[in-house]
Write a structure and sequence with these properties.
mainly beta; 9 strands; about 10% helix
Length: about 120
């Protein structure tokens, strides 16, 4: 019974998540030797969320070290932000997923969203 209620809330409620593209990013060579780069874009559809955290994980969902201008991005409702992600050539073969996770403020019960793209 609880599953049905949760499903209805998710489908009919204000639980519209954010989007991250490309779905299957690829590493390219950056201007620095031994460093790979990819460019991502996040579009915020949620009125209740302004901050998104970026993370990169291996196939076992363990964090992989990376660098970007900001690991937590502020994105206004119905706006998008492009950002570059850099990783050493040594670590880039381990990177399986790049994810953005909505960061909620306060103690309110809200639905957090996590969107992941998978490296090719």
């Amino acid at each position: 019974m609880y599953r049905s209620i949760i499903l209805i809330v998710l489908l009919c409620g204000n639980a519209i998540a954010h989007e991250m593209t490309p779905t299957y990013p690829k590493w390219s060579v950056s201007h620095m030797q031994g460093i790979h780069k990819t460019t991502m874009e996040i579009f915020n559809r949620r009125k209740d969320v302004e901050y998104y955290e970026i993370g990169i994980f291996d196939e076992e969902w363990k964090p992989v070290p990376f660098v970007t201008s900001y690991k937590i991005l502020k994105i206004k409702h119905l706006s998008s932000v492009k950002f570059d992600v850099y990783m050493s050539a040594k670590h880039s073969p381990r990177a399986e997923y790049i994810c953005s996770i909505s960061k909620l403020r306060g103690d309110n019960m809200m639905i957090a969203s996590k969107i992941c793209s998978r490296f090719k």
